[in-house]
Each structure stands twice: as structure tokens, then as C-alpha cells.
Amino acid sequence: MAKLLTPSFPTMPWQDKPEGYTKPVWRYSENPIIPRDAIPTSNSVFNSAVVPFKTEGTDYQYAGVFRCDDREVSMNIFAGFSVDGIHWDINHEPITFQGEDPEVTRLEYRYDPRVVWIEDRYYVSWCNGYHGPTIGLGYTFDFKTFYQLENAFLPYNRNGVLFPRKIGGNFAMLSRPSDTGHTPFGDMFYSESPDMTYWGKHRFVFGTAGGWQSTKIGPGPCPIETDEGWLLIYHGVLTSCNGYVYRFGVALLDKDQPWKVLKRSRFYIMGPEETYELTGDVPNVTFPCATLTDGDTGRIAIYYGCADTVTGLAFTTIDELMQHLDQYPMR
Asked: How much is the pTM?
């Protein structure tokens, strides 16, 4: 059986799979975990990222960067902390990035963050407004002070997701080139950088397919390293007669050349079913952005946005996902 190459984390949020449940991913029974009005100004809190992080002098064991659209419905990202990974205290003011060039740090909009530990700090990536959407990058050591780096790409691009370690001596990232609008297309690409400033070695990873992933696809949480390759949870979009429907699936990428796809699911692993996923500002959306893993047990917790309104939590294991890939491979 495949194994997670991640640290032991026995205290991460977890619920066992319900008896008689046959699907590979199951929801937390108390979803949604973050309501739309979690801070005084928020219209919605969704598509956010969390990591283990011990805050000295407090009981906090987790930190995160959260997309909180305000009641003007402008998009920005906020830091937050949690004791248990389920109940969150989100700062009431958005992150203010420090940086050398005000041309880079100026704010148009920021949304859909991801967070990952690489070597000696936590890197944050997000969809950043700079004459259209592109990939913003920054880092923090304490989730109090944040430093912004150069934008990774020219507009237009979305869903920049960093790998948790260097590959071939370079930082590595997945992204989904886009357009200025609500992108009715989209394939996934891989890029590398020696310094988090200059990105190149762009490689096609995979594109749309039939059914639930026929309109566009894009990376979800940061890839998870296993002894068989990089486990990637990704989102796929179908254009229905009632608009877009967002679901998520799973793929396995080569460890040394992650643009090479070893396995990819034909069936999705989770999609909108519950009221809080079907109804909201943007109905019919389940959008994964972060995972917590326990390398000893193979457990995986998935944080996901629900109907672009609230935040949900779901669970699976490495065994469930690998079995799904083998049982329902892409044709």
C-alpha cells in the first residue's frame, strides 16, 4: 500500500468514515465549520488554507490564511488561528504585506490563498489582482508579519499551488492560466523557479476531460508527497444548464517530473450534495484548498469552500484515494 511521506500528526481533526458509507471522501458531521459572518465585516469566508502552527503563549495549534469577502463584496485575505483546526479566530483586519516595491504590494484584490511550509518559512500563494488575475507570492514566519514577493506570472493566471519541497533544486508550482473573466476554459501547468522570482520550465500537466471536469480544471491543495508520487487533489468544473458545477477529483504525479501523470480519476471524489454546498452566493461549488495529513495513519483532512459562502471540512485516507484511482482510472 502507498504511504504518506509526511510527519506524524495524531491530533489533527478527524472523524471515522460512517458505517455503510461507500464514497472515498466523507464530510465532517458539524459542517460548515466557518460561517459566512465569522468576522464583523464578512459576507463570506471560503476557499481558505490552514497549516499546523504552534503559537507561543497561547493554546493555538493551527494557523491559516482565509478568503473573506466583505459586504462591499471586495476580496481580500486574512490571517487566523485555531486550537483544534475546527473553531477559528480570524483577524478582523486583512493582511498587510511588507515589500520593497509598492508597485507589487499595492492592492487590487486577493483571493483563494494556499499556504505551505518550505524549508524555513510558510509561503503563501493567492490569486492577486495586477491588471488582471495573476499569482501573488509571499511568506511569513509567524502569521503576524507577511512579506510579499514578485508576482510569479504575467496576467492572466489562477490557482497557484506550491509543492512542499524543491524538485531538482528548484521551487515548483502548479497553476491554471486563465483570462480576465470567469474563465470558461482551463488546463494545468507546472513551473519551476530557483529563487521564487523568476519562473520557467513550464510544462503541461493535464487538461479537461469528460463529464464533471469538461469545462476547466485546476490544482486544489498543495500536492501531498507519497512513496509512489505526488498525490494531487484538484477541482473540475462542468457547465450545466444551470451554470457551473465545481467538484473535485484526485491524480498521482511523478515524484521527480510532476508534469507526468501516473494516474487520474475518472469519477470525482466529492461534489455538491449538502444544502450549504448547493445554495449560497455561487451555488453548486465544492472547492478544495488545503489538507492536513498524518503520515503514521494515512489520514487526510480536506478544507474546502462551499458555494463560495462558507468553509467545510471533509476526511479521507491515502488508501481510499489510491483505491479510487485504481478502481476508476481515466480512460
From this structure: 0.98
Contact 66, 48 (CB under 8 A): yes
Separation between Cα atoms, residue 99 and residue 149, nearest integer Å: 7
Amino acid at 15: Q
- Rounded CA separation 134/149 (Å): 13
202-237 residue pLDDT tens: 999 999 999 999 999 999 999 999 999 999 999 999
CB-based burial, 219-247: b 16+ in 10 Å, e otherwise: bbbbbbbbebbbbbbbbbbbeeeeebbbb
% helix, strand, coil for the chain, step of 5: 5, 45, 45
Average pLDDT over residues 103-107: 97
Q: How far apart are CA 317 and CA 320, in angstroms?
A: 5
C-alpha cell at 86: 475546527
Helices (H), the chain: 102-105, 275-278, 318-327
Q: How far apart are CA 161 and CA 219, in angstroms?
A: 7
Helices (H) and strands (E) in the chain, counts: 3, 22
Nearest to 190 by CA among 205, 179, 178, 177: 205
78 phi/psi in degrees, rounded to 5 = -130, 145
Spatial distance between the Cα atoms of 310 and 162, rounded to a whole number of angstroms:
24
| Mean pLDDT (the chain, rounded) | 97
Asked if residue 267 lies in contact with residue 307, where contact means CB atoms within 8 angstroms, the answer is no
